[in-house]
Amino acid sequence: MAETTETLSLAKVAWPLRTDRLLIRPATALDAVTTWEYRRLEPVYRWLSRAPRTLADYRAYFEAPATLAKTLVVERDGEVIGDLMVAVEDAWAQAEVVDQARGVHAELGWAFHPDHGGRGYATEAVRELLRLCFDDLGLRRVTANCFAANEPSWRLMERVGMRRELYTVRESLHRSEGWLDGTGYALLAEEWREQD
């Protein structure tokens, strides 16, 4: 199996990462059941891009090498309370400079157990994810997208200093609510460093 950009990039990191209250580490196949416990809850899965109906379907997706390569779990006192996605990708570039655009961006994502909401854990975890992207991985830009109706997600993006770059009208198809507006946020490495 060829190594992905995510695998190569995340291999450079000294795991686990620690914040004041959290531990962040690469996901393993053993995390499938724990993450399924909150990802199957309606307030969580209603906004996720994939909502497998059974644990078996979820395991098949979660345990796939491509998924594990970009998934991190967030623990609080040894309990998994959420997961993060960091998908390192190439930037668009003209042919003459394409080599300079390899593995310099990342798309971010997250899901957290609702029982742990309102305590700042998601903000703390995503701030550490940004630090990982810019300091440890040396990326130049990160993005995150969500349905515009998913206010908790885009508010989190704003809390960590990301800027709204786009708002699309009925561009995103939701599995039960039809065509919804979407929103996208981004942050450059220099913008992140200016926040300190």
From TrEMBL:
The keyword Transferase applies. The keyword Membrane does not apply. Keywords: Transferase. One of its GO terms (molecular function) is acyltransferase activity, transferring groups other than amino-acyl groups. Gene3D superfamilies: 3.40.630.30. InterPro entries: Acyl_CoA_acyltransferase, GNAT_dom, N-acetyltransferase. Residues 22-190 form the N-acetyltransferase domain. It comes from the Bacteria. This is GNAT family N-acetyltransferase. It comes from Georgenia thermotolerans.
